[in-house]
Amino acid sequence: MKSLGAGAATSLSALLLLARAVSAHPPPPSHLLPRDAPQLVNDTYLADPFHDGSDHTKEICLGPAANISPDYAFHAALARNKLWRSQVESTNPTLLPSLAAGQKPQLLWIGCSDSRVPETTILGVQPGDVFVHRNIANNVLHGAADASSAAVLAYAVGALGVQHVVLAGHTNCGGAAAALAGKPLGEPLDAWLRPIADVVREKRAELDAVPDQGEKTKRLAVWNVEKGVKVLLANEVVQDAIIGRGLQVHGVLYDVGKGTLEELDFGNGEADKAHGKA
Questions:
Q1: pLDDT tens by residue, 230-254
Q2: What percent of the chain has pLDDT over 90?
Q3: Which band of pLDDT confidence, cut at 50, 70 and 90, is reported for residue 161?
Q4: pTM score, whole prediction
Q5: Tens digits of per-residue pLDDT, 134-155?
Q6: pLDDT of the residue at 74
Q7: According to DSSP H, which parts of the chain are helical?
Q8: Which residues are known to be catalytic?
Q9: How far apart are the C-alpha atoms of 272 and 34, rounded to whole Å?
């Protein structure tokens, strides 16, 4: 029997983990499994997962989550973690030990909780590169109204010494769409979205002049970032870091449908300096 290398052995372990998850329940219908996945018979995969470079294993464990039955999504995620770790240890063996020793990120990313806007993925960076704070609709409020954001700023800017604070909005934002609709969602969502609803009231005439709903949502997302950037620039920790070491605050908009990240013309970053706004 041919011996397996470390990477293949880890992939096999990941496959077995997923297989055990499946064996604990009746196998899902074939249309809920990844396309071209090996067939399950008596809880065993018929196809040899290593006959062609472990492609089947990767399809099962790393394929689109939308192709995995919801019942097995968590166990598939655990399997993906095993494969991810194996890949990292193979391609960048010093990364994980260095992260265990501490972190020194240069960016603080404040973004939306939306699953379509994963900052590390869209920025193409590694674990340890970005300190992250996310909430619904990427809100940043003043003082005690948003103790979570204030605490993140105090630690990221004051203790870690990040050089850039990035406030990121995005297209197709559910929070912005809810504020535009103006229908009660119940607490605590209504209270949390109230600052965006205030922007809707302030910009009502401009919004009414825009016929396309998607464009309305996009403009509201941009205005919400602008409002948040003003809050960031008024923060005492941020102000001290701007004066003391040149901290930069940026506003950006991520286009969910295109994958593009646009720097907006407010904040005190390079784009703002170019437009004479810093």
A1: 999 999 999 999 999 999 999 999 9
A2: 64
A3: very high
A4: 0.76
A5: 999 999 998 778 999 999 999 9
A6: 86
A7: 6-23, 55-62, 73-91, 95-101, 119-123, 147-153, 174-181, 189-202, 204-208, 213-234, 236-245, 270-274
A8: 112, 114, 116, 170, 173
A9: 46
**Angstrom distance (rounded) from CA 238 to CA 250:** 12
Tell me the HSE value of 138 on the side-chain side, using a 13 A CA sphere: 34
Assess whether the previous peptide bond of 188 is cis (omega < 30° from 0). yes
The pairing of beta strand 164-170 with beta strand 130-135: unpaired
Tokens 């077995």 correspond to what residue? 16
Digit-coded pLDDT (tens) for 83-109:
899 999 999 999 999 999 999 999 999
The full DSSP string for 56-118 is HHHHHHHS-GGGS-GGGHHHHHHHHHHHHHHHHHHH-TTHHHHHHH----SEEEEEE--TT--
Contact 180, 220 (CB under 8 A): yes
Q: Partners of 165 in the beta sheet?
A: 108, 249
How far is Cα of residue 275 from the mean position of the Cα atoms in its chain? Answer: 29
Residue 176 near residue 182, CB atoms below 8 Å: no
Structure tokens at 182: 């103006």
- Judge whether 43 and 19 are in contact, CB under 8 Å: yes
- Gyration radius from the chain CA atoms: 23
